[in-house]
Amino acid sequence: MKVAVLGAKGKMGTEAVSAISAATDLTLSASLDLGDSLEELIKTNTEVVVDFTNPDSVMKNLEFAINNGIHVVVGTTGFDQKRLAQLKELLSKNPKVGALIAPNFGLGAVLMMQFSQTAAKYFESAEIIELHHANKVDAPSGTAIRTAEMITDSRKLTKKPAMPDSTKSALPGSRGSKVGDVPIHSVRSHGYVAHQEVIFGDMGETLTIRHDSINRAGFMPGLLIGIRNVKKYPGLTVGLENYMEDMK
Predict the structure, then answer these.
(1) Is the predicted pLDDT of residue 84 greater than 90, yes or no?
(2) Domains in the chain, ordered, with CATH?
(3) Would I find NADP among this entry's keywords (predicted)?
(4) Distance between CA 165 and CA 82 in Å, rounded?
């Protein structure tokens, strides 16, 4: 399978190039970065594009790839509901193309999100603390947003009441940014790569589910799963957890 990487000179892109090059069943067809022509994807008969660029350029990249029948695996952040709707519309015109938007490629992170979704059924309160390196340009992280959405969905299914919170006065931002039912608190500092804690509370006990990415190589097994399976899932898929059966 011929695979190209966009954002190939970035930290995640560099890791992706190495992982794809080392995989015996994949061929690195192109490694493109700022200023390179997307036409190279067509010239090299690329079948799958991996995008690790930035929120400002990712939609243009995806439009080009999808309109040319190329499947896409996306680790770039910044996908709100508006962008997902635009992507669905684009894919509806190219129904054989698969697109995976993955807030996190770490297998441990995927499990953390699934465990959190399960735990949300049993606890009255949940909050998220996400910690990333100082160069991360968005907050909260895509992983934190996705986790909060999954927790909120679980709470709705089990008809949980509003979380208890008697705060009457607070400095702006001190209670975090709320996604669905869940407050998210973001930390940005040198010394971190990507980390997240999900804290659940109820009468007399708490449960903390934490995932730590020590280095970016830890994202590559999940990325390869996405690349190898995106063709099987035409249309839009959000979250690597939807490929869990293919992780065996």
Answers:
(1) yes
(2) 2-101+216-247 (3.40.50.720), 107-213 (3.30.360.10)
(3) yes
(4) 31
